[in-house]
Amino acid sequence: MAQHDVEKQIAELRQQIEKYNYEYYVLDKPSISDAEYDELMRKLMELEEQYPKYKTPDSPSQRVGGAPLEAFAKVLHRVPMLSLSNAFHEGDLRDFDRRVRQEVGDVRYVCELKIDGLAVSLRYENGYFVQGATRGDGTTGEDITENLKTIRSLPLRLRKQVSIEVRGEAYMPRKSFEKLNEKRKMNGEELFANPRNAAAGSLRQLDPKVVASRQLDIFVYHVVNAEELGFVSHSESLNYLDELGFKTNPARQVCETIDDVLSYIEQWHERRASLPYDIDGIVIKVDAFAQQKQLGATAKSPRWAIAYKFPAEEVVTQLVDIELSVGRTGVVTPTAILQPVRVAGTIVQRASLHNEDYIREKDIRLGDYVVIKKAGDIIPEVVRSLPERRTGQEKPFDMPTHCPACASELVRLDDEVALRCVNPQCPAQIREGLTHFVSRQAMNIDGLGEKVIAQLFEHGLVRSVADLYTLTKDKLVALERMGEKSATNLLQAIETSKQNSLERLLFGLGIRHVGAKAAKTLAEHFETMERLQQATKEELTAIHEIGEKMADSIVTYFSKEEVKQLLERLRAYGVNMTYKGAKRTADISSTFAGKTFVLTGTLQSMSRSEAKEKIEALGGKVTGSVSKKTDVVVVGEDAGSKLEKAKQLGITIWDEARFLQEIQQ
């Protein structure tokens, strides 16, 4: 075949495939069968393989995923990706409307569905897709260009040769999510909690082929350089995105009044379950760019837009059974087993019942129809029973008198609502203790999930945390679904954990009342495990953060003969027993020294535990609730009641930008 004919055939195939991609993934109106489409793609890939000089980055064949990356490069956003302020009630929206109209006069809004996914920025030069990035901290994101190329509704080449930067939301459709979790379940892998987590986890895969297999999608909703391109309104720029071949959400609506906005919200609150993807609210934006500019923005959020968050969705289903689980401290927790039902985007079959008193207070019976919701749209819980739907077949539930795991008698300690198994040899407690020991905040042993721990326990390979350091490759490869590479990686992670600083080991041991923060305080103060083992109650309570209850627990723990033997074994296996962090000094920053901080909402630049570590390293103290003793409240995204209480008490409030500025001084 002549070179000219090859080039022409490749161009025609690409044009056809791009057309069919747009019909299928954007319009949802395919005009050819999957088999016909696959045959066209096969021909294109064969020709590009045979004539590699004609293979280009914008070819539809590039969506299958390239070679794995070693790491993501950082991308500095030309225009910051700000987050939106939230509204939770009609009053919040009317306040927003009042502020906007006081500033700019008559206004109209564009309402859009708030897709529950991952915000991304896309850059095109002369019509070609050249870079895609995550939001990151709003200023700096990660380059995920190759992963975004696998999303078939995202155009690699626009219909016009324009240079443009747009923002969008990458998400996982419900069907893709269900298929992915089904596959992970078959492989014995941990399931994703919801489509948003699955989408975020997928886009941060270093292997684009993995991303391609997960069938993500995207809606584009913003043109960064719209005014440079001659547009005067947001709605006008969205129509232009359609012309370029982007997938925009067709449910958007221009509203002339705040009452129109409220009507739109009510409509989609009722219809959200019928969508093939998850939404968690509605975004309301001032339409005219001139008015947006006049309203401006804070360091964190534009003043011309707001996100209305839907209240937690409540659904009714039937309680089939109540299952009991034993935690690492021996607490027996009841969990509702439900008829499967979709709540906030995922199928729910289990929900929290908290404790025996909760079941009695709510009069929850086996066979009841119950109302469930996801607390914070994450954790399913039973809200109430529906006695009016009872048939007489329902049965009251009685908590057992003996441990479901070891049959030891259960006890209720003073001032506790929970029933507890106090048998130190209880297999359920041992398994839970092992899982806690290897967790991220403790010894952080990657690859040792609950299922692997269960296998190790069932095969008699581990009975205490010290046994983890006796594992060998031969022992591991004998386990189901444990190959040589996985075994090697796991042994390396176990070996690496020996070098952890003392506070991780202390937290991992699971001493009652000693959380991650207290473990850090103890490690920093005593510096070695030996000194801590010898500490008296008086020495412990002399430390500001350590109370009598915790001190008693620590002294009791280290007095046990089995604990002394465990620590000797860990020392013999080379586990570090000293504090490796920096000691607090007298000249620490006065901005933080001696002050009490509360963290609320989600920080973009770091996790909450990382923020706590930074505050404590600078001499501050972090507590969980706002009171008159609080000095500063650090506010991230989706801040709730703690922010409102801080405002009422007149407490200093820092947004994330201010917090970062202070810790860097």
UniProtKB/TrEMBL annotation:
Residues annotated for Zn(2+) binding in this entry: 403, 406, 421, 426
Keywords noted in UniProt: DNA damage, DNA repair, DNA replication, Ligase, Magnesium, Manganese, Metal-binding, NAD, Zinc
Top-level lineage group: Bacteria
Cofactor (UniProt): Mg(2+); Mn(2+)
InterPro entries: BRCT_dom (IPR001357), BRCT_dom_sf (IPR036420), DisA/LigA_HHH (IPR041663), DNA_ligase (IPR001679), DNA_ligase_AS (IPR018239), DNA_ligase_CS (IPR033136), DNAligase_adenylation (IPR013839), DNAligase_N (IPR013840)
Enzyme nomenclature, EC number: 6.5.1.2
PROSITE patterns (UniProt xref): BRCT, DNA_LIGASE_N1, DNA_LIGASE_N2
Binding site residues for NAD(+): 34-38, 83-84, 112, 135, 169, 285, 309
Active site: residue positions: 114
Keyword Magnesium: yes
One Pfam family this sequence matches: Nlig-Ia
Protein role: DNA ligase that catalyzes the formation of phosphodiester linkages between 5'-phosphoryl and 3'-hydroxyl groups in double-stranded DNA using NAD as a coenzyme and as the energy source for the reaction. It is essential for DNA replication and repair of damaged DNA.
Entry's family note: Belongs to the NAD-dependent DNA ligase family. LigA subfamily.
Record protein name field: DNA ligase
Organism of derivation: Anoxybacillus ayderensis
